[in-house]
Model the fold of this input.
Amino acid sequence: MCGIVGYVGGQQALPVLLDGLERLEYRGYDSCGVAIVGDLGIGIQKSTGRVTDLRKTIGDAANTTGIGHTRWATHGTPTVANAHPHTDASVSVAVAHNGIIENHDSIRDWLGREGIKFASETDTEVLAHLIGRLYRGNLEDAVRSALHEVEGTYGLVVVCAAEPGVVVAAKKGSPLLIGVGDGEHIIASDASAVLEHTKRVVYLDDGEVARVTASGFTTTTLDASPVTKEVQEIGWTLDQIELGGHEHFMSKEIFEQPASLRDSMRGRIDLGRSEVRLGGVRDFVSRFGRTRRVILAGCGTAWHAALVGEYLFEGMAKVPTEVEYASEFRYRNPVVDSRTTVIAVSQSGETADTLAAVQEAKRLGALSLGAVNVVGSTIARETDAGVYLHVGPEIGVASTKAFTGQVAVLAMLAAHLGRRKRRFPKKECAGFLADLAKIPSKVEEALRCDGQAKSISERLSGRDNWLYLGRGYNYPVALEGALKLKEISYIHAEGLPAAEMKHGPIALISDGMPVVFIATRGAQYEKIIGNIEEVRARGGHVIAVATSGDGRIDKLADDVIYVPDAPEPLQPLLTVIPLQLIAYHAAVARGCNVDKPRNLAKSVTVE
Ligand code: F6R
Done:
């Protein structure tokens, strides 16, 4: 969603801000803007569309303090007027804001009665006017006073014409960090915008305000009590957030999966002792071991990974497990107690609904764990403990390597719990871990189907409706395959448990309709063969993902993509690969913007 960059230091602010905004493009946005503090006041430049368009409209500015923003519209359409930064009437302060000011209507009415004219339809503009009105010679105090008036969420950067060389930042419910450089500081909503300048960062916590200058920063609470912050090192490298010869981040990330899965498992699988070692849950290991019920919460792709997790937890730890849409969980009066473990599954660690689910679970007394990718993200910090995915930065909006990382982490957590509860025999666990350790090289093999996936997509990307069907562990993969296709190629696709087809969706099958079956060898193989026959009989075009060496399926399906054999619980890590590739190539064939699909944001930080 929206992105924030702020700069104060010895360099010209403008190029740093524009480069930073480009690094944040992957989060999704529809307009952008910058505010630079100069001798003659604050200069604002905004644009609808891309940061490259903004670059074209903007001249040089030698000034060294500024803020920038990429906006994903919530209140008000994507217009130049609604783009951030917003200012007060005299352009003495400028504000860039992520989040939502919930009581903006009442503040707007009140300010309107005081004679303030608004230039935009946004909730953010009220903040700019409030800060301007409350300014008495100290920007930090004015921001603090304004924030006492507002309800809602914010990641905020503010500059002021009277205090060049100062950026004030504040956070509540929307991520914000300060990159600590040499004689300079970069404030951003996401580490990728600061990585080019520094790897040393300070994550702001909710309710904190920072006053940042070139030489240092101070942090305080909203009530002005000082807070000491720890400087942390980001583990990511610059080349991880660059294309490295790939045309799109999505394809780069699909092909990174052998390596990202190795990184996810590194140091965690002890084959000698048949044990899983998860340092991140060490302090809560006995409480986790007493768990009577597991709830997995997530959204979108993370929810699909959680569905695989449900099978894994029930299969290995024999603990009743449910999967919750994070957005529904907290509005449902969930029955949760201290023997419940709620695991938040999230790539970004910032998804607002998943965060709210964690907070609700904690309030109800559950143990909360995170299966999160972004180190230092809000969910990672709000949960009691957790296991990082360690798949590296995921820039493509369509989640790929995070899905396989989530499944791998849930598999390790499930095996760990199964062993603690003595419900997963040591010998079985040994076999499972040995198979898990082999998955990265099998993914390498599975990726060899790229050319075939491309040919299938090129032939069929003109079809407007696709079905994805799978059973057991591969049912969530069917859902994931359909989501991948629809979100980046805008083809309508539905994923279903294969047996459900006969309860209605079979009516959709028409001549040549692409139907993707995940038909790997396993307990339900014969059943899925029956489902394939049913689709064939109705003229559907069958694309099967099958186990290498399965000669039978070749005679039934129009296209077959083979993946290496693996035990059923681990098959999703392989069967998802051709589906990611089919979606990718279909989107390319249709000329879609693969990494920045329309209307989508990488991380959904509003509910
Ligand atoms: C789909 C996709 C989304 C995310 C969902 C949750 O490709 O990326 O469905 O999976 O928005 O995001 P995280 O995992 O960041 O909580």
